[in-house]
Amino acid sequence: MRLRSPRPIGPGRLPRVVPPAQRQQVRLHVVTGKGGTGKSTVAAALALALACGGKRVLLCEVEGRQGIAHLFDVEPLPYAERKIAVAPEGGDVFALHIDPEAALLEYLDMFYRLGRAGKALDRFGVVDFATTIAPGLRDVLLTGKVYEAVRRRRTKGGHEPAYDAVVLDAPPTGRITRFLNVNSEMAGLARVGPIRNHADAIMSLLRSPRAVVHLVTVLEEMPVQETVDAITELDAVGLRVGVIVVNLARHSGLEDRALDLAVAGTLPAAGLRAGLVAAGVDTSDQVVAGLQRTAQYHAQRVQLECEQRDRIHGLNRRTVELPQLSAGGDLGGLYELAQELRDQGLT
Q1: In terms of CB atoms within 10 Å, which of 3, 93, 231, 322 comes out highest?
Q2: How far apart are alpha carbons 69 and 74 in whole angstroms?
């Protein structure tokens, strides 16, 4: 296999580019990915990107880790919507940490008018018991809160939505289809009644053009395989796949010929020594041999990433790449990634 130095995927190379008019219909952006791929970071950057230009965006999390608070360097979030950031060119990002127990109490009050009785159930541990023995109910509660945020209007009886977009930092790809396919999960719990009707309404939104699922991966075998599997599962249940986000992408500074020589372990020592002389550093045989080994490891890594990039391109899905930030994952990095997403036409 001949190596080629990986290049960033620019807007002109994106397959299945979604027309702006169609993109504007999307109100719910679900972000998933294998653990360790940076899906929460991508979800946060996407929320900032969508809020640019004076928009209002709600960023939700459901995994109980307080990841949003950590990313934006704010206090742990309560079960309430709170403004956490101002987007470039104006616009506000709000955040919501969705707690399943609090959501169940809210649900009981909304549909059954239990009020204080519902809070009493929480004291006796009934709420925790119910969501433990019926995980499908837990997912309905979590997705139901997101559903409500998408449908809510800014003023009672008005037509303007409370939020221009909602971004959900969802569970990992390994369970994303089960999490979103609430109708299937509720089949054995409730065939009729308010809970079932609520699940049907949630699925109506999730299967509509207003909702998409973005998948975050890195250029490694397991995350890419999970992405492939998740797309197959999402397609099978009628959930729309949005964009594959290749995160932490690195691009080699070596030319194609140098990569071929490096992976074979035949990078000329003379060239390396000449470069060391020009830099004014040690040119001993030990240093040169160390550089050759480092270059070989780098080239092998590039080869692996090229193979995984080819697999992703073979899916014929719209793809964007986000760079590995030299400054790490601080708040400034989120704004940088948000601009990358805008530049690549994701918003």
Answers
A1: 93
A2: 5
| Inside any domain, residue 77 | yes
Type of residue numbered 198: H
Rounded Cα distance between 114 and 121, Å, is 10
The residue whose two tokens read 């299945």 is: 16
pLDDT tens over the chain, length 347 residues: 445 545 444 433 444 444 444 445 899 999 999 999 999 999 999 999 999 999 999 999 998 888 999 999 999 998 899 999 999 888 999 999 998 777 777 766 665 554 544 454 554 454 554 555 455 677 888 898 999 999 999 888 788 999 999 999 999 999 999 999 987 765 555 555 677 788 888 999 999 999 999 999 999 999 999 999 999 999 999 999 999 999 998 877 788 888 888 888 888 888 888 888 888 888 888 888 888 898 888 888 888 999 999 999 999 999 999 998 766 667 889 999 999 999 998 87
Three-class HEC string of 101-121: HHHHHHHHHHHHCCCHHHHHH
Q: Is 88 part of a structural domain of the chain?
A: yes
Query: What pairs with residue 59 in β-bridges?
Result: 95, 167
The number of beta carbons lying within 10 Å of the beta carbon of residue 51 is 29
Q: Provide the number of structural domains found in the chain.
A: 1
16 inside domain: yes
pTM of the model: 0.84
d(CA 216, CA 41): 10
Answer for the pair 218, 248: CB distance below 8 angstroms, yes or no: yes
Please give the residue range of the domain that contains residue 327.
Answer: 11-343
